[in-house]
Design goal:
The chain has ten helices and 15 strands. It is an alpha/beta fold. Strand 1 and strand 2 form a beta hairpin.
Length: 376
């Protein structure tokens, strides 16, 4: 069968590329289409070196030609990348901190803080040096989740300057506004006061050497988020959502905030929390209480990585309330779920650091053993 070049171009108009805003023909991404009988070669020009975007474009091209033109067509996609000048990373770097990951959610109640705490202890158990900054000023929960409610940071002298020492629990360095207020005291602050307090916990603290600092952000897309992104060179953002439509709508806005031209923080991916429920007495059964794979489908629609799913398990909630993150429960499905999640996050940080300007002095080099080495 002889393939028609014009028909192929028409079919390719159904495909869009993340960040382009137009279909790949209209945007100029399709540089050329050549046909030889039942063979077709598509030359594609992309403006981002991200591996998942290149792979998605190639798969979409093959799929649309097979479905709309000829199901036995032999297709070759040549992808050339001409990335624009790499943008300047915003914010003042913190000596010794390699990667800063913002953990966000579009709405409250999706388990963002639980994910942050368990991801932190999992990374620490994998051999990384990890810190958590509880940036949820109005609802700080890290002191409870790490069983350090009564702890108070002490002052230490570093290079002639007085610094606050983060609290350590389960191998994780932690700072939270909860350490400086009584448990029954509401934080009634306007945005500038909250931002100033966060800046003090970031820049006036002795964090030491960290491979990862996790920022547990407040829900939504507000003043705290903007202040942190102006203050810090954030390596990337992770968005947490549950599968139901009302949560996904807000998660979509969260992704959009980080991808906004004025902010431009790389989105490392989406995590689906409370993905399904499996009762102990029926370990092979999965009940999709909030819907099935909603966050996974959203990640595909937005063309951002899907990092993994965490089930609804009673012990995850209990462990958080008792101050011992559930990921510490060895040889359990929970531990396995968070290990897979942590590995996905690490891999996306590696991918991001290979394609965008580094914001760190240390680069992750291996997954096996999870080691980190200083750049020469």
């Amino acid at each position: 069968m002889k393939l028609d070049r014009k028909e192929i171009l028409k079919a390719l108009e159904a495909i869009s590329i993340a960040g382009e805003g137009k279909n790949m023909v209209e945007s100029g991404a399709v540089q050329n289409v050549i046909t030889f009988g039942d063979e077709v070669v598509v030359d594609l020009l992309l403006h981002t070196p991200a591996l998942h975007i290149k792979k998605r474009a190639e798969v979409d091209i093959m799929k649309v030609i097979h479905e709309k033109i000829y199901d036995k067509a032999k297709i070759k996609v040549n992808i050339k990348v001409e990335a624009p000048e790499k943008p300047e990373i915003k914010g003042k770097s913190i000596p010794g901190i390699s990667n800063i990951i913002a953990v966000s959610s579009g709405k409250g109640g999706v388990g963002k803080s639980t994910i942050t705490a368990n991801l932190a202890v999992t990374l620490a158990n994998m051999g990384f040096k990890v810190g958590v900054l509880d940036a949820d000023i109005y609802g700080p929960s890290m002191p409870i989740m790490f069983d350090v409610e009564k702890a108070r940071p002490i002052s230490v002298e570093v290079d002639g300057k007085s610094k606050m020492k983060p609290i350590q629990s389960y191998g994780v360095e932690i700072l939270s506004i909860g350490f400086f207020t009584s448990p029954d005291q509401a934080v009634i602050w306007r945005g500038p006061m909250a931002s100033k307090a966060l800046n003090q916990m970031i820049f006036d603290a002795d964090w030491g050497e960290l491979d990862f600092m996790l920022l547990d952000l407040p829900p939504g897309t507000g003043d705290i988020h903007l202040s942190l992104m102006q203050s810090l060179p954030i390596t990337g953002a992770v968005v947490v959502s549950t599968p139901q439509a009302v949560a996904l709508a807000d998660a979509k806005k969260g992704v959009s905030m980080f991808q906004a031209e004025s902010i431009n923080v790389p989105v490392l991916g989406i995590i689906e929390n409370m993905a399904y429920f499996t009762p102990d007495e029926l370990p092979d059964n999965k009940y999709y209480i909030f819907g099935k794979e909603g966050a996974k489908n959203l990640a595909a629609d937005l063309q951002v990585p899907f990092l993994g799913e965490v089930p609804i398990v009673q012990s995850i909630r209990e462990a958080g309330d008792y101050g011992r993150p559930a990921a510490l429960q060895t040889a359990t499905p929970i531990e396995k779920a968070f290990e897979e999640l942590a590995r996905s996050v690490v891999q996306e940080v590696v991918n991001r650091n290979e394609s965008l300007p580094p914001t760190e002095a240390i680069k992750i080099t291996t997954m096996a053993g999870c080691s980190a080495v200083k750049k020469k």
